[in-house]
């Protein structure tokens, strides 16, 4: 029995994706048009670019949704993706365009490629593939099953070495935001791999303790010493802003202080779409890292809360696909994608609110950035494909039982 795939589309994922994407275009225009007019450029320049990426993203979702899902189980394709990502990260490190102290963008054919954005999804794919192949061994040998030889072809290192090298290349750009997302997502997927919970609890406790001690040491010895480390000068400014953003309102604390001003200006109901004060030259990166501060200022805490609720609803629906999937690989991949989005939201909102040091991470859908939108869209396409395949398999099982 042949079941048309378009009838299996999960609208509880696709519709929120469409709403958030369109809302993102509105927010990008609102947060960028004033600056573009000031610089005598078209107010539609950046939203036009974002729209092009969104149209490409829709095409990517349609293409991925209609592919046979087994293409993601090809170890040679995965190895090629890792290799290409490795090359892109090395090229970015040595010839990337520097922005705010980080060399994270590679110029190609007039477009900027941010390799670290795509790495997040590739790491989820790599870990889902690796852990799934070792499910029986994990059942018998617990965490020791994940220390055996890699399943990637023609290898010199195992999967842990590949992962550490890729993360290290992101760190030295330095792009601590995306590195943090990759590390936390990897930890969550490690916990979901089937190992005993005590190992995950111990690892999580180790990370929390190390982070607390690290921040405590920086606070004790001062961020001035961190600023002297090559490549990490701008990172020191973020730590300085975390400890006291109002100490230096002209430099290190500028973003955080104006982020607070923006959220305070918004109140409960906001100043109205397009009426933000802080985006008019006061809050740097108002359209990328700190776009959610502008969202709060224009839509208020209630409006921003509803948007955040929709994002969490989308993430929960993605996680639900992973939890219900009967196939181990499908389950691990969907759960990894859901974890990746959840961690990104946490790191961004935590950064702009001062709960954690700001790391320069974009907010999903709303921030201006074609690479981020394309990565998320590809991830959504994969989840929709997984859900459709699981539904089809479930229908066929029920028919065979009748």
Secondary structure layout plus pairing:
Blueprint (H helix, E strand, L loop, with lengths): L10 H28 L6 H21 L9 H21 L1 E3 L2 E7 L2 E3 L1 H19 L1 H7 L17 H13 L4 H17 L4 H25 L1 H5 L5 H11 L10 H13 L24 H34 L3 H26 L16 H32 L1
Helix pairs in contact: 1-2, 1-12, 1-14, 2-14, 3-4, 3-6, 4-6, 4-7, 4-13, 4-14, 6-7, 7-8, 7-13, 11-12, 12-13, 12-14, 13-14
Structure description:
- The protein has 402 residues and is mainly α.
- It has three domains: 1-66 and 253-402, no CATH class; 80-219; 222-250, no CATH class.
- The protein is built from 14 helices and three strands.
- It has helices at 11-38, 45-65, 75-95, 115-133, 135-141, 159-171, 176-192, 197-221, 223-227, 233-243, 254-266, 291-324, 328-353, 370-401, and strands spanning 97-99, 102-108, 111-113.
- The protein has a three-stranded antiparallel beta sheet, covered by helices on one side.
- The longest helix is centred in the C-terminal third of the chain and has 34 residues, at 291-324.
- Mean pLDDT is 82; it is low at 149-156.
Largest pleated sheet? 3 strands, antiparallel
H/E element order: HHHEEEHHHHHHHHHHH
Low-confidence stretches: 149-156
Beta-strand proportion: under 5%
Distance between the termini: 14 Å
Defining traits:
402 residues; mainly alpha; three-stranded antiparallel β-sheet; 3% strand; globular; 68% helix; 3 domains
């Amino acid at each position: 029995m042949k079941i048309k795939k378009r009838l299996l589309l999960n609208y509880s994922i696709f519709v929120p994706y469409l709403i958030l994407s369109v809302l993102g275009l509105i927010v990008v225009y609102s947060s960028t048009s004033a600056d573009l007019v000031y610089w005598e450029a078209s107010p539609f320049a950046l939203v036009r670019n974002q729209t092009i990426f969104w149209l490409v993203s829709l095409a990517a979702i349609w293409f991925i949704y209609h592919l046979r899902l087994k293409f993601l189980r090809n170890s040679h394709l995965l190895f090629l993706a890792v290799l290409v990502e490795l090359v892109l990260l090395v090229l970015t490190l040595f010839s990337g365009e520097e922005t705010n102290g980080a060399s994270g963008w590679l110029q190609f054919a007039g477009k900027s490629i941010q390799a670290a954005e795509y790495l997040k999804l590739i790491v989820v794919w790599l870990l889902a593939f690796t852990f799934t192949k070792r499910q029986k061994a994990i059942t018998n040998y617990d965490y020791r099953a994940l220390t055996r030889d890699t399943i990637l072809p023609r290898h010199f290192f195992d999967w842990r070495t590949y992962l550490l090298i890729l993360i290290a290349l992101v760190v030295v750009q330095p792009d601590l935001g995306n590195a943090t997302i990759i590390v936390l997502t990897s930890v969550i997927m490690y916990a979901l791999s089937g190992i005993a919970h005590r190992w995950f609890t111990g690892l999580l406790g180790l990370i929390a303790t190390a982070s607390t001690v690290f921040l405590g040491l920086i606070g004790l010895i001062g961020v001035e010493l961190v600023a002297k480390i090559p490549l990490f000068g701008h990172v020191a400014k973020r730590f300085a802003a975390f400890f006291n953003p109002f100490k230096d309102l002209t430099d290190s604390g500028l973003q955080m202080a104006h982020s607070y001003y923006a959220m305070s200006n918004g109140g409960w109901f906001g100043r109205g779409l397009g009426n933000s004060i802080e985006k008019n030259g006061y809050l740097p990166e108002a359209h990328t890292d700190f776009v959610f501060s502008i969202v709060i200022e224009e839509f208020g805490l209630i409006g921003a809360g509803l948007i955040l609720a929709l994002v969490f609803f989308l993430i929960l629906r993605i996680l639900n696909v992973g939890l219900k999937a009967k196939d181990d690989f499908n389950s691990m991949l969907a759960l990894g994608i859901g974890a990746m989005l959840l961690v990104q939201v946490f790191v961004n909102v935590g950064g702009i609110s001062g709960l954690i040091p700001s790391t320069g991470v974009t907010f999903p859908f709303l921030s201006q950035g074609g690479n981020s939108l394309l990565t998320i869209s590809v991830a959504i396409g994969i989840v929709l494909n997984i859900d459709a395949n699981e539904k089809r398999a479930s229908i066929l099982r029920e028919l065979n039982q009748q």
